[in-house]
Amino acid sequence: MSETRNQYADDPKQGFIALVADLAAISGPDGLTLLEIRDRLDERAFGLMILILAIPCLVPALYGVPQIVGIPILILAVQMLAGRVEPWLPDAVLQRRVSKAWLERMADFATKRMGWFERLSRPRLTVFAEGWAERAAAFFMILATLTIVLPMTNTVPSVALTLLSVGLIQRDGLFVAAGAAVATGWAMALAAVGIGFFVGAGWAVSLITRFGG
């Protein structure tokens, strides 16, 4: 096992965009399994796996994909919250194959649309990106993922996941804090809409009952 992980040792100096592009480049005609992707990500596996899963969900008003990738993101985030060092996923999930076409689309999106994430992120405020802060970031990842699976609401929580993931990968506490703020704000906004709808619907029903009879 150690030989396999050494063979695919992650270069910490390599940016996450180049790493995503490399995954697409090395994939065969059938793509890569999540097991192969996890092993190639090595020490940055948690942050990078969540980032790779979140990238497709950045597309506005997407339906279907967020509901699928939300499950492994939740599994990974819960493990981070529990303090696990290495990602674990069920064998059935690890054997799921990511197609070469999907990997290429992710690499293309990352290269064209996410350059500013990599350019602006750097090690700073590391107290918010290491140790206890990783568990706090995991909590906000869970919060974002619980809203990402709702139909047509995927983009904003995906931005939160991206900021949190990049923050952990780059040890950038500012990005982690920004991701936590986006996740919290979005959850509060959805809660406010839900409460408003419930209260409004209840008020309408009572009004109809009062004047309709």
Automatic annotation (TrEMBL):
Superkingdom of the source species: Bacteria
Keywords: Membrane, Transmembrane, Transmembrane helix
Transmembrane segments: 45-63, 173-205
Pfam families according to UniProt: ExoD
PANTHER family: EXOPOLYSACCHARIDE SYNTHESIS PROTEIN
Protein name, per record: Uncharacterized conserved protein
Gene source species: Brevundimonas viscosa
Taxonomic placement: Bacteria, Pseudomonadati, Pseudomonadota, Alphaproteobacteria, Caulobacterales
